[in-house]
Amino acid sequence: MMKTALKNAANTAGEKVKLKRRRFLKTGAAIGAAASLCTRSISARGRVERPTVLGIGAGGRGRADLEQVSKAGMDVVALCDVFDIRKFEKVTNKRLKGLVSVREAYSGAVFGTDYRQMLVELGDKIDAVVISTPDHHHFHAAMQAMLSGKHVYCQKPLTHGIWEARMLAETAKKTGVITQMGNQAHANDHMRRCVELIRAGIVGKVKEIHAWTNRPIWPQGFDAPPPPEAVPPGVNWKQWIGPAPATPYSSKIAPFAWRGWWNYGTGALGDMACHIMDVGFWSMSEANKPASPRQVIAQQRGATEYSPPINSIITWDFPACPFSAGDGFKFFWYDGFVKGQFDRDSWTLDRGGKEYNHPSSEVLDGMDFEKFGSVIIGEHGKLFFNRSRPDWQLRTGSRIENFQWPDETLPRAGGENYGEWHDAIAGKIPQCQSNFSLAGPMTEAILLGVLAQRHSDQLLQWNSEKLQITGRPDLNAQIRRDYASGWDAVEAFGL
After folding, report:
1. Mean pLDDT, the chain, as a whole number?
2. Mean pLDDT over residues 105-119, rounded?
3. Whole-number Å distance between alpha carbons of 120 and 128
4. Which of 3-7, 301-305, 307-311 has the least mean pLDDT?
5. Are 296 and 317 a contacting pair, CB within 8 Å?
């Protein structure tokens, strides 16, 4: 029944058409064919001042996302979540209590647990979707929504896998829907000003970029699953697993700790890099499109068959661009507590103190790393940046005296990430700045780092055109994963 519904989801000018099962030898052909079956390029209702929204993932991060899109001027008319708290005898989990408040706040909203079915059944009743699910659902939810003509706001990282990020970026371009990834600081005016300054050469041509975080703060580094638990009434566990490999239900996986599982999350890097590395990626993006790295290598501690590492340091090598020195630049990432340990008895991550991975004292140049999240190093100085605070700091030589301060070239959003999405849907601005054309390639590069974490100390040469690690066909399955029965991308989307 679901496969039939998905095949009939795409239609043109209200006329339903059948999505034929076809296997394409070339990805581009698949995307083009899928896009040609798209319901609408921007919505059957055209540009609308008050778009209607389906929230996919209505607890946790979803609660905040829905509050913000409502504030921006949208109507939340439908909710989807695998936890149906109205079937719970009692809600004691503090993270699920947020879902209770969401159901109360949008009491008139249609509710369901399977977004695939809801997207089909709601049809033209919704203009847009907000995706706030675990990482492993981002691709399927966003792809079906775009091919149904819905505008998409998707939380970071854009996808769970590298191939998925490429597909969403290409499909967004083909369909013309308005897209935005949920790295909210991208809308901060001080970030946009720093991007302009770096591109204008305030630190000279860029040689290195460093970014760091104290995450993970959830359990990571375990080498076996927790004991199975009975699935509580009101939890659609089969739908939660969705396209990913199955595992028995455990409260130690959902609703919070899934980030520490390779099958469902992408660890500290996937959680935070789209925020913290954003200013660096954006600054070095020619025509607002990030270049693909040439190679990547990771050192890590604690990664297992099941779980991302307790801490890691990753280095990407990027080719030259108009803003880089020499033949390219290097991007460094640092995460995790140096003495952290996974405690299986409590199923927690013992941080082992306050020290977490960060750049060397030479890189920091006397600056307090806890007050910043990244530094851009050029031939003539350094720019220290924190996405959450506008007091970025500059360290340069005398060349600053003759620096020509650039005009504003990026549109300002005043920190209104959700408002920018609304305004683009309403036709007030051409597009969002963190649209999938930028967010897709950035996510690809970040997830290449996730792949490197799984193969520690191995230099991986990246062939972006072929979406392959050179000489490593054994890694193809980690670039494009196989999906569980009923979720095949070929059958569902023709990809």
Report:
1. 90
2. 97
3. 13
4. 3-7
5. yes
Cβ atoms of 119 and 389 closer than 8 Å: no
CA–CA dist 102, 96 (Å, integer): 10
According to the model, what pLDDT value does residue 94 have?
79
- Peptide bond just before 255 cis, omega within 30 deg: yes
Q: What is the pLDDT of residues 45-78, one digit of tens each?
A: 566 889 999 999 998 899 999 999 999 999 999 9
Identify the burial level of 195 via C-beta atoms within 10 angstroms of its C-beta, where 0-12 means exposed, 13-18 middle and 19 or more buried.
Answer: buried
Domain 187-415+443-471 has CATH 2.30.29.30: no
pTM assigned to the model: 0.91
Q: 2-184+480-493: which CATH topology?
A: Rossmann fold (3.40.50)
Secondary structure class of 462 (helix, strand, coil): strand
**Alpha-carbon gap, residue 59 to 94, rounded angstroms:** 11
In Å, how far are 225, 237, 347 from 247, measured between CA atoms? 9, 10, 17
Strand partners, 370: none
Cβ atoms of residues 180 and 158 within 8 Å: no
> ∠185-62-344 over CA atoms, to 5°?
95
Spatial separation of the C-alpha atoms in residues 65 and 119, rounded to whole Å: 19
- Measured in degrees and rounded to the nearest 5, phi and psi for residue 303 equal -65, 145
Residue ranges of the chain that CATH labels 3.40.50.720: 2-184+480-493
CB-based contact 239:113 (threshold 8 Å): yes
The answer, yes or no, to whether residue 398 has pLDDT greater than 90, is no
- Residue range(s) occupied by CATH 3.30.360.10 in the chain: 187-415+443-471
Say which range, 52-66, 85-99, 120-134, has the weakest mean pLDDT: 85-99
Contacts of 6 (CB under 8 A, 6+ apart): 19, 116, 120, 144, 491, 492
Residue whose pair of structure tokens reads 């977004």 in the numeric block: 115
Q: What is the mean pLDDT of residues 469-490?
A: 96
Count of all residues that appear for the chain in the document: 495
